[in-house]
Amino acid sequence: MHERLPHARAQFVRRDFAAAEREARAVLQDDPTNRDAIEVLGRIHVERREYDEAQQVLLAACTPRRPHPDSVALLATICNRTGRHEAALRMADLAIKSDPRHVDALVESGIALRALGQFEHAVDALDPVRDDARAAVELAAVHLRHGDFVRGLPLFERRRQFRPVGVGLAEEEWRGESRPEARLLVLPEGGLSEFLLMSRFFPMLADRFERVVVLAPGPLARLVATIDPRLEVVRSLPDARFDVWTCAGSLPLRLGVRRPEDLPVEPWIRVEASAAPVSGPGVRIGINWAGDPSHPSDAIRSTPLRALAPLLEVQGIDWVSLHRGARQDEAKGFRLPRPLEDAKDFLDTAKVIAGLDVVVSTESTVAHLAAAMGVRTCVLATQNAHWCWAGWYADAQLCPQREAGNWNGPMSDVAGMLLTLPVAA
After folding, report:
1. How far apart (Å, rounded) are the C-alpha atoms in residues 397 and 391?
2. Which of 207, 285, 317, 337 lies 20 to 30 Å (CA to CA) from residue 160?
3. 108, 136, 159: which is the final residue of a domain?
4. pLDDT of amino acid 60
5. How far apart are CA 92 and CA 90, in angstroms?
6. pTM
7. Total domains in the fold of the chain
């Protein structure tokens, strides 16, 4: 092994990608075919979401006669993140032929098979390596997608091995027992969407504790305070006084959810509408075309608004922009009202959504918020949509892509829904 390769790997683990790249390139200067250095450099590009560059680098380590399993598995990761699931399956299979117990390759195979609708085969790929935390969480996604909470929720707990929560707290973790004399702290984890998804359980917690203290992410704090008057919402841990704690993603397991019928799906976020976002006579529909630009699959999860332009031409619809972020100015080109320009947080967003009839959104916090409010929601999704869209919301319609990055299929689904609306018909 080249003496600088361990330094490259160590810097990568520390997420000092610039230093890791310097070390990897130094190795390749001495040994241009060093496949371990090529793999490290490929991983750096993947972490930066430079997928084209990563593929170009990794292919150098993947000769047909002597493929490098780690590099081939990483190519499968890239294919899955960019929606090319059949190619991901081929890459994963190639790595598995070289190493039948290659964990990353089996995980990517499971992800690809789930996206392709081959759920039983996905289980077959993931189950043998379920001791790996990532494999366990992907296996949980397959079971949860089919409403098998008995198997799915315990596996979902394994996420905490790579996403630790509550580390260093002296207080004990709550395990599901009723504690009417105690104060419970709910810790956030994951993104805003996951926190909103789990906020449905907060009123159930309030029935079991003297007080429920919610450490809410800043953009959601004011909104969460409207869910139940018994909640105490704080924005920083030093402000919280509590006896036991739990993390938001563990709530369905701790509360004994075992079947889809156990889920509370009635709208749990209710706010008064602000001034009408549009004043026309048509059906009022909010549209959001992009999510978190840092998401590994943002290139196929988000879209320029122009890709959805045919929807904006449907007669009898008064469209409103619900997008804030890097692409918000695209609404100007279509003369869409932008009632969120001065919004402070998601409470202001909710007040706008409360005045709409329908929301059309890519997989994002906006979609979760609209669905949590009981507003009819069309979710423009990739083939590998999150498991929560299978039954966790009462009035959400999943509109998945048929091909990676191609929005024609989702638009067709939305158009079919629009035809059922009184004015659009």
Report:
1. 10
2. 207
3. 159
4. 81
5. 5
6. 0.94
7. 3
